[in-house]
Structure formats: structure tokens, C-alpha cells
Amino acid sequence: MASVRPGWMDPEQTNYLSGLFQQIVEDCKGGLPLFDEFITKSLKLQSQLVSTVAVFGSFLDTAQKIADVAGNTKGSSTDIGICLERIVSKHRVMEVHMKTLTSTLSACLTQPVETKLDSWRKKVVQLDREHAKQFKKMRAVVKKRSEAVGKMKKKVKKRNKDPVLADQMERAEEDLESATEIFVEKEKAAVRDIQGVERTMFATFASGWKQVIAEEFAMLNQVEKLGDMMEKIDQETLFPCNLLERSEYCFSPDMDKSFSVYTPSSSPYASKLRSESRKSRNSC
Prior knowledge:
Elements: H1 12-72, H2 78-158, H3 163-224, H4 227-238, H5 240-251, H6 268-283
């Protein structure tokens, strides 16, 4: 007579798997509203970023005008003008990355989550419903076959040497073992399915962040490139001797610069006075 393997009739394994399934379902149901909240906050952030980029562009337009004036001055500040030009140039690149960051936040993070959120919610509810139905059905099957084995054991005790009862007992135990094994495998499959949905949710979210962070790195890289400009500005502004040297350079006649003498234009009133003065002298 075959013996049932230890543990197959023990409900602990199926109960553990069922409990694990329900815990993951609860985690998913608790996380889905947070995705809704994230989408709302993300849309607000995108709106603010669009406004910030517009103001930042206007800010750089004015900064560029100041840099142009400093770079084209006939005085001693052209070197600072060159620094300012490079600073504005790097910030222009940052402006482009800010625009890309805004679009990336929408296209790679917000939209993928938003478009899949309803399907995730429906899938979780569907798996939960199917699991409850399947668990109830398989538990009833295992219980029925377990009761059949119990009845057969009582008969075998009364008629210990009956070969027919022995064969029936063996088949009943095999049926119970088979049903229990199927029960366990179905529970494992249910856990795998809900784990797949959960992982898809968080993997989609994490993948979107990867693209956003790449743009943030690109933007911060432009700031790092301004390190030499910081040192240059310190040299030109913190040490008065540099200003004296630049001033002496402006006084040199061999400068590659052209100057024009400013002559104020005469007003009609002044011309009239000069004409009347000449007439008076002629009359004398």
C-alpha cells in the first residue's frame, strides 16, 4: 500500500501561499492610489517647469545683453565679458536640458504610468477574484478526498487483510496526494501572477525615473564645466592689480581698437545766434 508523503496533507503550505498572495494584493491595492496622486503632482510640476523655463529664457536674454556690452566695451572689462559670454552659453545649454527634462518627465514617467494604471487596477481585482474562487474549489476537493482517505482507513482497520480494500486505500491516498499537489501548484501560479503585476508596476515607474535622471545629469554637467570660469572671475575681480594691468593696456597706443571723437551736433538755436552775431559785426 502506498503511503502519502509527509506534508502533502498538511494545509500549512497552501495556507502560507494563499496568505502571501493576499498580502501582495493588498500591497498593490495600497500602491495604486499613490500612483494616482503621483500623476496629479507630476502634472503640476510640469506646469511649473514650463513657466520656469520661460522665465529662465528671458533671464538669459538680458544676461546675454550685459555680456555683449562687457565684451564690446572700450574699457578694461572685455575679459570679464568673455567670462560672462561663456557663463550665459552654458546656461543656454542648461535651458535646453530643462525643456527636455520637462518633456521627458511627461513622456517617459507620467504618461506610461497613467496609461497603464487602469489595466493594473483591473488585473489586480481580476486575479484576486479568480484566486478566491480557485482556492475555495481546490480546498473543497482536497477536503473531500482527505475525508475519503479517513473513511478508508477505518475500513482497513476492521478488515486488515482484505486486498480489495488495500487497493482502494492506495488509490484514495494517491488521489489525495495528486489533488494536494495540484492545489499547491495553483497557489504558486497565483502568487507568480500577482508578483508579475506588482513588478510591472514598479519597474515601469523606475524605468521612467532612469530617463529623467539622465537629463538631470546632463544639466548638472553644464554647471561642472563652469568651474574654470569661477576661478577666472575670482582672478579678475578679487585682485586689484589685475584691474590696474587692464587699465594700462587700454592706455597703450598699439591697441587693436578704433576710437572716434564725439562731436556734439549744434542745435538750431545756436546756429541762429552765430548768424545774428556775424550780421552785427558786418554792420559795424
